[in-house]
Amino acid sequence: MNERAPILGAADMEIPGRDGVPEPMCTLLRIEDARWFFCTVASPDGLCAYIKLTPGEAFAGVAADEIVGNLNSCGVIHGHIVSGIAFFAAMQSGPGPYDCYFQVARGDPMSRGENGSIEFHVQPSSSHPRYDLNVSGNIDYKQLNLIENCFAGQRVASILPPGPGRAGKDIFGRDIPPEPGVPVDVKLGNGVRASQNGREISAEIDGRVIHEDGKISVSTLLEINHDVDLSIGNLDFVGRIVVNGSLPDGFYINGRQGVEIRGDMGAARIASEGDVKLTGGVKGKRAGVIFCRNLNVRYLDETIVEASGDVVVEKEIVHSNVKALGRVSVPHGTILGGTICGFRGVEADTIGSELGVATRVMAGLDWTDENRMEEIRIRLAERMERVHSAQVLLEPLFADPKIKSTLDNEQQSILYELVAELRDLRGELHDILRERTDVLAHAHADAVRQINVGKLLHLGVETSFTNTFRTITDSVKGPLSIIDEVDRSTPSIVEQRHMPTAAEFRRKLEKAIAEVNMAES
User: Fold this and answer.
1) Which of 83, 227, 290, 350 is most buried, judging by how many CB atoms fall within 10 Å of its CB?
2) pTM for this model (two decimals)
3) Using one digit for the tens of pLDDT, what is the confidence trace for 274-315?
4) Under 8 Å CB-to-CB from 416, ≥6 apart: which residues?
């Protein structure tokens, strides 16, 4: 008898599957007579077909074409496993296999599309190191590259759409529509914006990319919750860095918008275009360096500081080299040893020591101008030497015109070149002298040529200003001010005077400019 089951009907039986796990099947065809018991089943998804043959008394073998015919008769028209069918048919003339299911058709499953994803052009901050190699080709364990800087307007990520997938076909010849991938869920946080089509994400500010809980943002803050160590390494960040710990020897931090160390600093380096604050102090061991705008610190010991603003120290500056385009202020502490330069003045409770430790304090000097002046002095000396050499060669010719008439054409050509070079050198000398004048004029424009001492100024302290200097020969009790007066060859020590702040000076300058404008109108 023949009994056809509905195509892809509900599973009505199970066959042994892989690893002995039963697999549900739908019966497609049953043939049961004296010759055999022949059964065809299919998986519910329509992707696999199996046959089972049990010989009867009249069984005399089966041909591959007959098996294919049976498959076609029950609708299995696609994915015939030709080699498998031929093998099964050949085995039936021998010992079998019998009474077991044998796969004879396999459909083409559909392929699901890839899910949407995010392609980062700037890598998000990570706790996993991305080590660099040093010049020797070895791993630099202080260069972890945990953050990658991004800048306003820079594309930081692209949103890739999901793939469409690929269609399949079941054993009945029916198309199986593909399943597209799932779009990636992206949320936008602070500091980023999306393009009009929503596929590109750009930074609105300088900072670092953060990708957390499906949200992309850019932050100007990098906070470290412990001491800087080899799990953090050196840091170079366009934003602001906060370290809830200390900065030990040998590390480097560059936080362009500012750095805050909530601990101590050793022989390390800090660089910033913004302000730097340390709740502790610095034991620089002659290798600690800080470059910044304004600096606020508990103490400085054997440290180099270059600040474009003010340097405020709570306790003391010891054997340090501190240069500031603002004020150097230790209002309740001591300056002992080293060189201190404050363009807008210097103040401390005590300067120097009873032992006469070499301490140099400069006020009203722009250390960047001092660097320029040193360059100018070198160039000036070089040009003057060349002018002198040219004059020595030309002087005999100018003293006795008859010598010139004895020169041949080549010698006269050299003479003219030498005269032209001398003229150019004199022009360069004039430009260099004018540049020096401009630098000196700038140095006097808004300088505060004043040093304030609250309690005691020790002997041996050297004080320097724009054009004058003075070495203290006897200790002097404060409060006092050392000032640079235009009509005196050495600085004066007077009763302490108010030292104008930058804001006060700006107001005074604005008032003077306004008065000049009113007079001209």
Assistant:
1) 290
2) 0.73
3) 999 999 999 999 999 999 999 999 999 999 999 999 999 999
4) none
